[in-house]
Amino acid sequence: MKAPNGRVVAVTPAAYETAGEAERGFDGLRAVADGLTARITHVRDGIGWIWVVPGSRTLPEVRSSRAYERYATCQNAFRRFVVLLAKQPALELPDLSERGPSLRTSDVR
């Protein structure tokens, strides 16, 4: 997902077969935006903090696109993400049944 200034603020590690699947995944996040909670964790290989919204699978549902130097800055970035997510309008995508290239939610927005 991108902010209005073009900066990528969140990514998903999940791959989708069609743009419609990616949009449905994004719609699901948008529907529960107010109730999302994140786990803020220190990055494994490097310096900084990232926020992660746990998913139902082994992969996170969505995570910050970058590491933040301070814990509090990471918390604020997650709060801004939730506000931005709630403001996103629904996209009207055609239901494509043929298999296309895999997409991530971040590629759709």
Task: Give a written overview of the molecule.
This protein is of the alpha+beta class and 109 residues long. The chain is built from three helices and four strands; from the N terminus they run βαβββαα. It has a four-stranded antiparallel beta sheet, covered by helices on one side. The longest helix is centred in the last third of the chain and has 17 residues. The protein is globular. The termini are close together. The C terminus is likely disordered.
Largest sheet: 4 strands, antiparallel
> Which percent range fits the helix content?
25-40%
**Side-by-side strand order of the widest sheet:** 1-4-3-2
What is the averaged pLDDT score?
A: 81
Structural class: alpha+beta
What is the first-to-last residue Cα distance? Answer: 5 Å
Shape: globular
In short:
The protein is α+β, with helices and mostly antiparallel strands and 109 residues long. Helix content is 31%, strand content 13%.
Topology record:
Blueprint: E1 10-11, H1 19-31, E2 39-42, E3 49-53, E4 62-64, H2 71-87, H3 105-108
Antiparallel strand pairs: 1-4, 2-3, 3-4
What descriptors fit this protein?
4 strands, globular, alpha+beta, 4-stranded antiparallel sheet, 109 residues
